[in-house]
Amino acid sequence: MTTDDMKQEGMQEETPVQPGAPETAGQAPQENTSPTGRAVDTAREQASEAADALRHGEFMREAVVDPEASSDDRLIALLSYITQILIPAVMPIIVLLSASSKQRPFQRYHAVQSLALTIVFVGLGIAVVVGTGILQIVPVIGWLIGVAMVCLTPIGYLMAVVALLYYGYQAYQGKRFSIPGLTSFLRDQGWL
Fold it and tell me: In sequence order, what are the residues at sequence separation of 6 or more whose Cβ sits closer than 8 angstroms to the Cβ of residue 127?
C-alpha cells in the first residue's frame, strides 16, 4: 500500500520509535525515578488537586468530627486559627511547645495546620510586595500595578481573615479537616 492509499482509507503510517527519543502523544509517559523528579511530580499533583478543589468551591475536604476532642481541645484549636489574625504564629507555637501537645493530637493537628496556613499567607504577602517593588521600576506600568496592589491588598487580607475565621469555627465544631493542597503537603512531610 502506498501513502496515498493509506490516507484514503483513513489509516496512519507507523513511525519507528528510536531509543532516547522524546515521547509522543501516543506513548505512555515515563516515570521520574530521581527523588527530585518524584518530589516535583508530587507537588504538581497536589497543586492541581488544590486548584481543582478551590475552583469547585471546596474550602476544605475530609471534614470528620473527632469524638475524642474535648471542649478544651476545641477551644485551643479555635484560638490557634483566630489569633493568627492579629498576632501571627504565637498561639500555634505555644501549643506545639507545650508538654501536653503530644497527648492532645486534636490540638496539635490544628496548631500545625494553622501555623502552616499563616506561613503561606505571609509568604504570598512577601512575594506580592517584592514583585510590586520590582515592577515599580517601569514608569507607567509600575505606577498602575502599584495602585492596583494598594486596592487589592485589603481584599486579600479580608479573604485571609475569612478563611481563618471559617477554619477556626470548623475546628471549634470538633472537626478534623483537610485544607486543599496544604494538608496533603504537611502529611507528606510527616508534620501531621
Answer: none
Which range has the worst mean pLDDT, 46-60, 85-99, 153-167, 178-192? Answer: 46-60
**Which residues have a Cβ under 8 Å from the Cβ of 171 and sit 6 or more positions away?**
74, 77, 78, 80, 81, 110
Nearest-CA neighbor of 146 among 131, 156, 154, 136? 136
171-190 pLDDT, tens per residue?
999 999 988 888 888 988 88
Alpha-carbon separation of residue 28 from 72, 116, 122, 134, 179 (angstroms): 52, 36, 40, 42, 32
> Bridge-partner residues for 175, per DSSP?
65
Classify residue 173 as exposed, middle or buried by CB count within 10 Å of its CB (0-12, 13-18, 19+). middle
Query: Structural domain boundaries of the chain?
Result: 70-192
* 47 close to 151: Cβ distance less than 8 angstroms: no
pLDDT in tens, 131-171: 999 988 888 888 899 899 999 999 999 999 999 999 999 99
59-76, pLDDT tens digit by residue?
A: 666 778 888 888 999 999
Phi-psi region of 57 (alpha: psi -120 to 50; beta: other; left: phi over 0): left
